[in-house]
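On clarity, I found the account of how folds are encoded harder to follow than it need be. Since the whole study asks how a given chain folds, the encoding of that fold should be made plain. For illustration, here is how one protein appears when written out as sequence plus structure tokens:
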Amino acid sequence: MLDPTYGDPHRKALIRALEKRRWKFARELFDMATDPDEMAYLMEAAGGVDGIQDWIGEWIDAEPDSTLPVLVAGCHAVHWAWEARGGKRAKYTSAAQFRGFHERLRYAEAVLHKVLDREPDNVTARAWLVTSSRGLGVGAVEARERFEAVIRLHPGHVVAHEQRLQYLCDKWCGSHEEMFDFARGVAATAGPNSLLHELVAVAHLEKWLTIEAGEDKEYMLSEEVCAELLAAADNSIFHPDYVPAGPGWAPRLATFAMALELADEFDAAWRAFALLDGTVTEWPWQMIGDPVERFVASRDYVNDNLG
């Protein structure tokens, strides 16, 4: 079963509060975030709640001196824009879908800039502008500046790094070379026990998706890819100090599970699935089909091939 809460009671409470339009309680839950990464993970949860755009004005009007409801409106609108676009590649996306996508993104950017007009150092608003830069095809210089504005304030911001990597993907605004240069550069400077090592796994998955059937498996089985995936996992989710309970842990850990399974690194993949303990997330399984079906199939395949 797909679990948008990742078994996290804080995330679960926030989703329920927003679904019920209990914005006063939602404020308390947002205010409990201890750092920009936790705030970003909570905002990701808010992005998945349907209908916020229909009532968020009530919260904004009730608290005109607060930037939080404006921030929620802007970040949610970025996710709302992707709903209009759909999850398929550009050649399978209609002109009407693109129009809705860009209209909602422009609205999101206008709202996020309202936050920054009042709070120039609002890390979350700047991080979500990194995401919208990809959807609007912002130029390379401005896109880089948006990302750098985030990491000046919070150098290890996981969501901003993930979104920067997506911008640099061949399918968006970059190339395989730019994507890997970024992922490897970040991993080289990330400390042990950092989820930023996940970027290496994401980069390999993104390239794998572009390779023709048959050759894609050969790519994932290559000695270089396997070595990079194992090193990244050892420096993050398999590090002795890593605890799979922090904010946003599940989809990042699932990325390793999927990549290691595709590389036939069955022992390592099983360790990742064991840490997930049955938690099914939308990302990364949505890349290859129904998340629940793909999670179960991958886990069972790994189990069947353990040494």
